[in-house]
């Protein structure tokens, strides 16, 4: 490796990543626990008010229970997670992470669309499946979980053998379900904005992981970015697969 190459990587590292402040780390943990833990308690307290009497209502109750479990697991995982070895630095990375974590809540306050029984059941099923799979992924991610782009421990097993960002994929499934329930131009616009922000979050997270874990390039070369390999045409998959490392390299190289 040449001195110029080392210098470029060092500049990129200083530009997008910084050290760990224990006080800020624990402050962020407390904030996440309050927000997600409080939301879980509020959700649990309101489940008994949900009506019974139809398949869609039962699906909604199941989805609400899954959401409470997911929120509670986020709070619990945040308490027990590892101290990061490297944190993101810069306003854009932090703003993207925060914007991606909360705008979906805005969809819950929009008026429900008048859907037929089939579409209503489909939307609720998507929410239930997305949240339930998110719980499974979060269990595999475990102590490496974070909202901001941070490096703790590289997870490549379980759902992370299928795609590099399974949690975002599962949340995307739930997002489609929520959008269908409040189907309107505003809801679609919010969903598109959320999807764009989530894509940015995934890129930012990979920038940090590539800096900390040299083996990440090998993992990325063998694992699809977001969509499982069998669900996209082979030719398109190869193109996306080849473009992924180039995109990430450009992202960390200030001279690219």
Description:
This protein is an all-alpha fold and 256 residues long. It has a domain at 89-252: Four Helix Bundle (Hemerythrin (Met), subunit A) (Up-down Bundle). 68% of the residues lie in helices and 3% in strands. It has a 3-stranded antiparallel β-sheet. The two termini are 17 Å apart. 31% of the residues are buried. Mean pLDDT is 82; it is low at 1-16 and 242-256.
Counted beta strands: 3
Q: State the low-pLDDT regions, or none.
A: 1-16, 242-256
Strand content: under 5%
Radius of gyration: 20 Å
Shape: globular
Strand order in space, largest sheet: 1-2-3
Percent helix range: 55-70%
List strands and helices in order, with pairings.
Elements lengths: L2 H14 E2 L3 H25 L8 H26 L5 E3 L2 H11 L2 H4 L9 H25 L8 E2 L14 H16 L3 H28 L3 H7 L11 H19 L4
Antiparallel strand pairs: 1-2, 2-3
Helix pairs in contact: 2-3, 3-6, 4-8, 6-7, 7-8, 8-10
Keywords: Membrane, Transmembrane, Transmembrane helix
GO molecular function, one term: transferase activity
Protein name: Isoprenylcysteine carboxylmethyltransferase family protein
Short description:
With 256 residues, the chain is an all-alpha fold. The chain is built from ten helices and three strands.
Task: Looking at this protein, list some descriptive labels.
3-stranded antiparallel sheet; Four Helix Bundle (Hemerythrin (Met), subunit A); 68% helix; 256 residues; mainly alpha
